[in-house]
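R.M. (postdoc): so does anyone remember the format we settled on? I'll just put the structure tokens first.
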């Protein structure tokens, strides 16, 4: 039986107001925040605490939570039929995001990306190279990039898929990097054959690790089926046996991350995609990881998915956002929505060749992500174990077919 992630008091460091802000975006991305919605979110959080969600009380009587634990609990309770929030709010919002983008006329998109780096602890006098992702030129057309002005003493360098800021560390607390980007998305690349098949069959690449248990599972699921049948078996296994949600990466062994997924029964979008890629590679099917941003105007979250090379059709995308869309695989109308296709995406990495690289500040093992809104932008905050920001992304998406600019809302990763 899967064990699930392990939760402890040391992870419970995020105050209740920030958790409620995240819940309101998870369940009400298309609504203006109101006291009534916040009260509903607070009631749901209280019900989960009564149902076993962990909480840490401070000496002042306030409650602290682990955002990973909160999302895992609400999804697991929903999957087990013990709570209605996931189906009524989270899944409904996810589907509406997809449908809203599908209903928009295709065309050019304008995206503003800004990243704030926390420089707390940076050695004064040291030269820093700070990075943020941008669209890959090969995965879009009509690409037009305008970096935001750098401050005095800073140098901005533009490269394919990334923007870099070079500066000398002082006693300043933060630095900013950003750009306004216009492009026409091209989420699928058609290639007759992989340029280097061996590159996409490597047994070890980041989270992609073909261990003995992963290889044995690939053989068991694929059997003697042709590649198309094997991919279908791999997809169904992941969709039916894992819970898609955030995880604590400090619990995952670097040499066998997918063994941990098998044992825990839980994976985020990065791990789920890596698992599918590993199963494919173990079967001799070229596969790779792709990442970037959704382009839902109300929820342009960062995301990972997989691409698999099918001989007769070239590279095809597979995205386990389908897990939430289909309520854990239960709804056949949504189960395969992103099987062999995706919607418009901002693609900034196509691994292993095209990657952003080190972002320029150290990231501790116990990081988490908090997603809220600030003004018109979604705010994607990478925080350490104590709840302090490491870096924060602000993302807005506009379409040329909109007369008025939309207010952006953000929904959490699968």
């Amino acid at each position: 039986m899967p064990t699930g992630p392990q939760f402890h008091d040391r992870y419970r460091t995020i105050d209740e107001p920030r958790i409620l802000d995240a819940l309101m975006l998870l369940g009400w991305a298309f609504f203006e925040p109101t006291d009534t919605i916040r009260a509903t979110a607070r009631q749901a959080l209280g019900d989960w605490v009564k149902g076993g969600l962990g909480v840490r009380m401070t000496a002042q009587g306030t409650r602290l939570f682990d955002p990973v634990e909160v999302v895992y609990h609400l999804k697991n309770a929903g999957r087990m039929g013990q709570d209605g929030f996931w189906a009524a709010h989270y899944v409904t919002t996810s589907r509406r995001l997809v449908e809203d983008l599908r209903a928009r006329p295709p065309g050019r998109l304008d995206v503003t990306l800004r990243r704030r780096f926390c420089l707390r602890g940076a050695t004064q006098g040291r030269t820093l190279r700070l990075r943020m992702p941008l669209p890959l030129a090969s995965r879009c057309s009509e690409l037009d990039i305008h970096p935001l002005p750098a401050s005095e003493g800073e140098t901005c360098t533009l490269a394919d898929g990334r923007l870099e800021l070079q500066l000398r560390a002082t006693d300043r607390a933060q630095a900013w990097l950003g750009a306004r980007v216009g492009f026409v998305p091209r989420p699928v690349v058609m290639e007759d054959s992989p340029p280097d098949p061996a590159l996409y069959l490597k047994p070890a690449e980041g989270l992609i690790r073909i261990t003995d248990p992963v290889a044995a599972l690939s053989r068991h699921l694929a059997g003697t089926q042709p590649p198309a049948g094997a991919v279908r078996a791999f997809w169904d296994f992941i969709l039916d046996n894992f819970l898609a949600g955030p995880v604590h990466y400090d619990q995952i062994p670097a040499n066998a991350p997918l063994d941990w997924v098998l044992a825990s029964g839980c994976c985020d979008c990065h791990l789920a995609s890596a698992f599918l890629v590993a199963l494919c590679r173990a079967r001799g099917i070229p596969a790779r990881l792709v990442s970037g941003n959704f382009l839902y105007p109300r929820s342009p979250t960062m995301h990972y998915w997989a691409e698999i090379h099918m001989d007769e059709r070239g590279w095809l995308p597979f995205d386990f956002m389908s897990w939430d869309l289909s309520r854990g695989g239960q709804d056949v109308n949504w189960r395969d929505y992103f099987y062999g296709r995706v919607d418009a995406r901002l693609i900034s990495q196509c691994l292993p060749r095209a990657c952003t690289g080190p972002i320029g500040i150290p990231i501790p093992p116990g990081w988490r992500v908090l997603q809220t809104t600030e003004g018109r932008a979604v705010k994607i905050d990478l925080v350490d174990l104590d709840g302090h920001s490491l870096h924060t992304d602000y993302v807005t998406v506009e379409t040329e077919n909109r007369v008025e600019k939309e207010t952006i809302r953000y929904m959490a990763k699968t």
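R.M.: ...and that's the designed sequence above, right after the tokens. Also worth knowing: The first strand starts at residue 14 and ends at 15. The longest helix spans residues 85-103.
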